[in-house]
Amino acid sequence: MSEPNQKPAVKNEPPATAKIELEQAQSKGALVARYLKRKAEVTDADQREFQKYLQQKAQQILHADASAPAKPSVVNRRNILKVVAGTAIAGEAAAVGYSWVNAGPASNAPAGGFHVGPQREPISRQLTDSKADVGGRSLGQWILLLPTKLGGGTYAIDLHSNRVLASIWYWT
User: Are the C-beta atoms of residues 171 and 152 closer than 8 Å to each other?
Assistant: First the structure.
């Protein structure tokens, strides 16, 4: 009932080996000379192709409509930006000149003008909330040191009076 296991018929041939013929070791001088020769051939071929390209472009230009030479358009993005920038500068100069003319030397506080001279009024330093608290509870008599985000400085804040006591700024 059972058949005996038969092995497939496989010929035991030695594996085929490819024969690689290596060149005899060449001197460095011969390798450099071969490289320079090939480089000169490639450069010459590139030069011929480039000259052929230039001739084709020259023929295309000659075959183009000779009666109407191509004139660059006056309206382009660069010229529009030049006009806009020039208009903005002229408008700003006119506004500054107008404010200087209307302010005059005797004017005390020109509307939208520049104040010239020393400060005559004191700086008002009033706090809206004299005590810092959260939900009616005081934060205590502590000084909080807070770093600045990107500047590398620090603030010293009094949590009881909600005032900045000091700050230091430096760049890395």
Answer: yes
Cα 18–chain centre separation: 56
| Separation of alpha carbons 87 and 95, rounded Å | 12
Count of CB atoms situated within 10 Å of the CB of 157: 18
- Per-residue pLDDT reduced to its tens digit, 148-162: 887 778 889 888 777
> pLDDT tens digits, residue range 135-150?
667 777 889 888 888 7
Torsion 56-58-62-68 (CA) sign: positive
SS3 55: helix
Least confident of 19-33, 71-85, 89-103, 134-148: 19-33
Q: What residue numbers bound the domain in which 52 lies?
A: 26-66
- Domain end position, chosen among 10, 42, 66: 66
The rounded distance, in Å, linking the Cα atoms of 166 and 172 is 20
* Gap between the Cα atoms of 161 and 140, Å rounded: 10
**Total domain count for the chain?**
2
Structure tokens at 28: 């460095």
| CA separation for the pair 160, 131 (Å, rounded) | 6
